[in-house]
Amino acid sequence: MKSPRRAAVSILRAWSKGHVYAESLIERHASRNSLSSADRALLNAIVLGVLRNLRLLDHWIAELRKGKLDDETRDILRVGLCQLLILRLPDHAAVFETVELGKSGVRGLINAVLRRAIATRKKLYDFENVAPEILHSHPDWLFKRWKKAFGKEDAVALMDFNNSPAPTFARINPLAPGAAAPKHAASSELPTGFYEIDGPIPTDLLAKGEIYIQDPATHHAVKLLAPRPGEKVLDACAAPGGKAFLIASAQGSAKDLLCTDSNDKRLPRLQGNLERLHCAEASIEVHDWSQPAPEKWRGAFDAILLDVPCSNTGVFRRRVDVRWRLRPADISELIKLQRQILENALPCLKPGGRIVYSTCSIEPQENAELIAAFLADHPEFELTASHQALPQRDQSDGAYAALLQKANLAAPAEN
């Protein structure tokens, strides 16, 4: 059985090649090595701690060790310093276990750096002259972008929020017989039906479909869509099914709901989630909305939810490695795709129908600016409501939703 610390180094080496997300690697290594729940928790804490604090850890390494390091030794030092200075685990275990991860030729170096970190801990925690983008470990370009969009104070607060642990929220399933929240879980600050899970996730409730793990920020889009019983509704980018579940909850069933996704490999998970959540009546089909809609869907829907692919900048505290993968060019490409999806969904609306365009982004270019450009080209649509959740302001995941109402241009009935 591989130790969680050794698994953490293996994960960081694999992650640096850029092909797999950290969460998938953690799950894969935990299962492959049959880690106990305690070791799995330690592995998760170390890997996410390193990725959340990558620039700060490298800043500390530069303070403690002059000269070049090979990539594997750097990752071992990141793992060790994360335990000592971020997670604040006991010094002896953190040093001894981490030194053992190195090849024989570098163990002395690793031991010396970690011992020096312990001896100079107070100095290392002095952040007075550390740039905020290093202290909070974000790429320079993102800090500059957010400083321009929100101001420096808010940009720093946003980076700080992104490095905070993400609480776990659940949504009670009104479609499940007898589903109810624990009595102590009610919160007037959360939308109806949501509560925060304090402690282990109740897997029995999850398995029975009585709850679904979901951040409250996801409800804004469905609240604006306001699906009513009997309406034909399309959830165009539906996997893994969280918003489809909210739509079905609002309608009282999933019988009038069509869920599509561009990737047929995601459909089994979508299907499984909907079945478990008592939404098995929903229709599910594969369709890439960067392409025109099939004829059978044209003019078919009263309401359409477009939860489009986006930069995910509103959910960095949950998807901790995305900040290191994202590039400015990616946002430009996403904006083109988002507009294409929106255009291709339009013919599927009935006269007087409505669309909610939503993202988990906080970038104005993906949100309000895209909608303004769309409306300039489509006078037959009106923006009737919108909502932007900002993490640094609302202390929640970031999300955007815009309700677009189509004018009813159907011919008047003859007398």
Question: Can you characterise this structure?
Answer:
The chain folds into 4 domains: 4-128, N-utilizing Substance Protein B Homolog, Chain A, CATH 1.10.940; 131-164, no CATH class; 169-197 and 206-214, no CATH class; 216-406, Rossmann fold (3-Layer(aba) Sandwich). A 7-stranded mixed sheet has the order 6-5-4-7-8-10-9, sandwiched between helices. Strands 2-1-3 form a 3-stranded antiparallel sheet. It has 19 helices and 10 strands. The chain has helices spanning 4-16, 22-32, 37-52, 54-64, 71-86, 91-99, 107-119, 121-124, 132-135, 140-150, 152-162, 203-207, 219-225, 242-251, 267-276, 322-325, 328-345, 368-377, 391-394; strands at residues 168-172, 194-197, 211-213, 233-235, 257-261, 283-286, 301-307, 349-359, 381-389, 399-406. Helix 1 (4-16) packs across helix 3. With 415 residues, it is an alpha/beta fold. Helices cover 45% and strands 14% of the residues.
Helicity range of the residues? 40-55%
- Proportion of residues in β-strands: 5-15%
Largest sheet, strands/sense/barrel: 7 strands, mixed
Q: Taking strands numbered 1, 2, ... along the chain, how are they ordered across the largest sheet?
A: 6-5-4-7-8-10-9
Q: Helix/strand/pairing class, anyone?
A: alpha/beta
Total domain units: 4
Query: What is the H level of CATH, i.e. the homologous superfamily of the largest domain?
Result: Vaccinia Virus protein VP39
Mean pLDDT: 93
How many E-type strands? Answer: 10
CATH class of the largest domain: Alpha Beta
Remind me, CATH topology of the largest domain?
Answer: Rossmann fold
> Any guess at the CATH architecture of the largest domain?
3-Layer(aba) Sandwich
Rg, please? Answer: 24 Å
